[in-house]
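Translate sequence into structure tokens.
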Amino acid sequence: QVQLVESGGGLVQAGGSLRLSCAASGRTFSRYVMGWFRQAPGKEREFVAAIMRSGSTYYADSVKGRFTISRDNAKNTVYLQMNSLKPEDTAVYYCAADQGVTTITSSATYDYWGQGTQVTVSS
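Result follows.
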């Protein structure tokens, strides 16, 4: 069992930056693939970024070059640094974890989820 708690969301102007954090419980954090997803009003939850146990990273095309995912296994925390934010980045951002993810871009393959943190980007 893993419990995930996101923080760092807020209101920012277009072009600004935010850093989201996701703190995980438990002593096996390093064994988990960690992902970030987001869901805007009226839209389906979509993949944003993932980081593997090895540290390899993957990004949605819409955020590539602007967002950076990282993890600190000593602190049981995964981060999402978001730069050059756009109004279309406005959404609730969710942290997810799983040990056996085969399709990292699919929300259905992650077993554990945080409660989400709101990110609002004004134009």
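Note: The first strand starts at residue 4 and ends at 7.
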